[in-house]
Write a structure and sequence with these properties.
Elements lengths: L1 H18 L2 H18 L8 H28 L1 H4 L3 H6 L5 H15 L3 H8 L4 H32 L6 H18 L35 H29 L4 H39 L14 E11 L7 E10 L5 E7 L5 E5 L3 E4 L2 E10 L4 E9 L3 E2 L14 E4 L2 E4 L8 E2 L9 E3 L8 E3 L10 E8 L5 E4 L3 E3 L2 E7 L4 E4 L2 E7 L2 E6 H25 L5 E6 L19 E6 L1 H6 L4 H17 L4 H20 L4 H10 L16 H4 L1 H13 L1 H13 L1 H5 L3 H12 L3
Parallel strand pairs: 1-14, 20-21, 21-22
Antiparallel strand pairs: 1-2, 2-7, 3-6, 3-11, 4-7, 5-6, 8-9, 9-10, 10-18, 12-13, 14-17, 15-18, 16-17, 19-20
Helix pairs in contact: 1-6, 2-7, 3-6, 3-8, 3-9, 6-8, 8-10, 10-11, 12-14, 14-15, 15-16, 15-18, 16-18, 18-19
């Protein structure tokens, strides 16, 4: 009881000394004003998860400096006041030191009140209580680690004034060095980034939380929780040895247990990083092995004309799949074999045809040759706990799965090849460049290899959903069935908080329930008018589906390369993209108009898809902005869209004439032949997009120019 009384007394006294002075109050007020001003912006409404990420990467590291200063002031107070000999002579253990340390933690924690107030205004209470506890826990763990490290310096060698710049350098190094190290050589590198909270909130979202990061957050928290406890144990051992000339058994037990936790956290973190890179390396080594030929769907003499896919989640630890597929021989010779790609993490359990498998490549042997123009079907059963990292990881960011199946969330993009894709594709690849002899001869593929070159009938059934709400790019038939008569890809996602809401006739917003109120007005104000204009020029458009997924991971498509499905424009966007349309006209052009047009031409991809959708979008923007007035359109086309402003990072030294030759040509057709001629030309171009994609850039442009005046 006497030790507890001393601890509480030391806590109250130190807290009063730290907080009850004008310097602390002034700094706290300035910090609170800065936080509120910096993280609240009504023009650019971000979801709570995005703001939380910004705070974890910007605010918390700055508050670490506050922790360093307050910890140094508190730890060195006894020596500065020249009462340290008296404290050392007094028969106490670590209770006075721990009381002061707890006061430092309390004083630092007060700085988190303003951030919590900001987060409370950005979403629902459900979102707040879901995201904030983890944010607080990890912030306080790292605060504890930093303050205890400084306390250890004081009790061992003493804090001198010249050490504060050294503390600052350590803080800076913890933010820079771990993010610059090669994670392959140093798998625990980001684990040491305490100043950036290990960048764990990079992947936080209202939809999946940090599910795609797997156990990395758990191991990170264990590591620093253990590290803080280890420092407490070491401080206790040191103080008892100096003051009582003996080691504390309690401190020794704490230190030993904490060391074990630190080692387990570091090992678990490293193993997950190593396994992630091993998965990617194995995939790349297989696909780029000597003699290996990559064949995309469009290069195959057959196509898959109908998919009937079933996902059974009765056992979430081992999901089961069934794929019934119809094959059409579109070549001129009989076929004896069918080759498709299936993620190598998925194990084929049964098939109605003999097969051979080599990694992700599967070859079916047909019992009789499939004649030209004839169709056949096959059935494949397979299973596997899919946890797919994709093919590209950014340096300095934690490794997260792009595609996954877990009891609390599902994300299956077609780039994961979770269903059979014709040919032998590079699983997980989103884009590539085939360099020709000149830039014009090069092909820039802007969509994953999994996209079919010809639409197929697709149906997806989900069984035993266990509380998950599902969404898909395929139109929804019921809660667990999605189907399209013409689709070139299938994306399925699920989360307990996912909501699919019809905004208007033909327009659906699929996002976390907590984001619906935030993004519904943006869809109505920005996306609906663009959709109506596109429908005027492209009558085949039947509607719009907007996916709003989490930041960082979980997207299988770039927002500018998502093929249309069953006549519906489909866009897979991060919350940032959807919010950014209000920030600058160019963002509205890029993440709204151009992304919608790219969905129309997405099945073509290549040089055609990238260059011409940009030009078509630019012409339509000028037409819409000028309300069809040719003189005003000419001025707009010459001036271009402002590419400067908040959130805009696209710059070009080209003039509008150099960057948008097709837009200017469409304008000339509009002036010479009228609106109907432009509509006819655009739809003929859309019909020919797959063929034009295989032509050099100059040849595709020449075809369009000739088509405009051929009749």
């Amino acid at each position: 009881m006497l030790s507890l009384s001393r601890l509480l007394t030391a806590f109250r006294l130190e807290l009063r000394l730290l907080c009850w002075n004008w310097g602390y109050a002034l700094f706290y007020l300035l910090a609170a004003v800065w936080i509120v001003a910096n993280y609240t912006n009504e023009q650019f409404p971000q979801p709570a998860s995005r703001t939380l990420f910004s705070m974890s990467q910007g605010l918390i590291p700055m508050l670490m400096l506050v922790v360093i200063v307050l910890s140094g002031v508190s730890a060195s107070r006894a020596s500065r006041a020249r009462i340290e000999p008296l404290e050392t002579a007094y028969p106490t253990g670590t209770e006075v030191l721990m009381g002061r340390w707890l006061a430092v933690m309390a004083a630092c924690s007060f700085f988190l009140i303003a951030p919590l107030g900001v987060l409370l205004t950005l979403g629902t209470l459900e979102t707040f209580f879901k995201l904030v506890p983890v944010f607080l826990l990890e912030s306080l763990i790292t605060f504890a680690f930093v303050s205890l490290s400084i306390e250890l310096v004081q009790v061992t060698i003493g804090i001198k004034r010249w050490m504060y710049p050294l503390f600052g350098l350590v803080w800076l190094a913890s933010a820079i060095v771990p993010t610059s190290l090669d994670a392959r050589s140093f798998p625990s590198a980001l684990l040491l980034g305490f100043a950036l909270n290990g960048r764990l909130d990079t992947n936080s979202s209202e939809l999946w939380g940090r599910l795609p990061l797997g156990d990395l957050p758990l191991f990170y928290d264990l590591f620093y929780l253990g590290a803080a406890a280890l420092l407490i144990g070491v401080i206790g051992l040191w103080v008892h040895r100096i003051r009582r000339y003996q080691l504390s058994r309690i401190s020794a037990v704490i230190a030993a247990a904490a060391l074990l936790i630190v080692l387990l956290g570091a090992r678990g973190y490293s193993l997950q990083v190593v396994n992630a890179y091993a998965q990617m390396d194995e995939r790349m080594e297989f696909l780029f092995a000597p003699g290996r030929v990559i064949t995309l769907p469009e290069a195959m003499p057959y196509r898959f004309s109908r998919y009937d896919l079933t996902l059974d989640l009765d056992d979430p630890a081992l999901p089961r799949f069934e794929a019934q597929i119809e094959v059409l021989n579109r070549g001129e010779t009989p076929l004896n074999q069918i080759t498709f790609s299936l993620n190598s993490l998925l194990t084929i359990t049964n098939a109605n045809l003999p097969y051979e498998r080599d990694g992700s490549a599967v070859t079916l042997n047909l019992p009789t040759p499939l004649e030209a123009g004839a169709s056949t079907s096959f059935v494949v059963h397979y299973s596997g706990a899919l946890w797919d990292y994709g093919a590209v990881m950014s340096q300095g960011f934690p490794l997260g799965a792009v595609n996954f199946i877990r009891p609390d969330g599902v994300n299956l993009g077609c780039s994961a090849a979770w269903y059979p894709v014709p040919g032998n594709i590079i699983v997980g690849r989103n884009s590539f460049v085939e360099f020709g002899s000149t830039f014009e001869e090069s092909i820039f593929r802007s969509y994953p290899d999994c996209v079919l070159d010809e639409p197929a009938s697709m149906t997806v059934h989900v069984q035993h959903v266990s509380g998950l709400v599902f969404g898909s790019n395929l139109p929804q038939v019921d809660d667990t069935t999605f189907a399209a008569s013409m689709a070139t890809w299938a994306h399925v996602m699920a989360a307990p908080t996912l909501a699919s809401e019809p905004i208007s006739s033909g327009v659906t917003l699929i996002a976390a329930a907590s984001l619906q109120d935030r993004f519904r007005p943006l869809v109505i104000e920005h996306y609906l008018p663009t959709l109506e204009q596109l429908r005027y020029f492209f009558p085949r458009i039947s509607g719009l589906t907007l996916f709003v997924t989490n930041s960082g991971f979980g997207n299988s498509f770039d927002p500018a390369a998502t093929p249309i499905t069953d006549g519906r424009v489909v866009m897979v966007l991060e919350p940032y993209y959807l919010s950014a349309v209000v920030e600058n006209p160019f963002n509205d052009f890029l993440f709204n108009r151009q992304a919608m047009v790219s969905s129309l031409f997405g099945v073509s991809g290549g040089s055609f898809g990238i260059s011409y959708t940009d030009n078509i979008s630019y012409f339509l923007w000028a037409y819409d902005t000028a309300h069809g007035d040719s003189a005003a359109m000419r001025t707009l086309l010459a001036q271009g869209i402002s590419q400067t402003g908040p959130g805009v990072y696209v710059y070009s030294s080209q003039t509008s004439e150099e960057r948008y030759p097709l837009a200017l040509f469409l304008y000339q057709v509009y002036v010479d032949q009228g609106e109907d001629a432009v509509i006819d030309l655009l739809n003929r171009t859309l019909d020919e997009a797959p063929r034009l994609n295989r032509l050099p850039l100059s040849a595709a442009q020449q075809w369009i120019q000739e088509a405009a005046y051929d009749s």
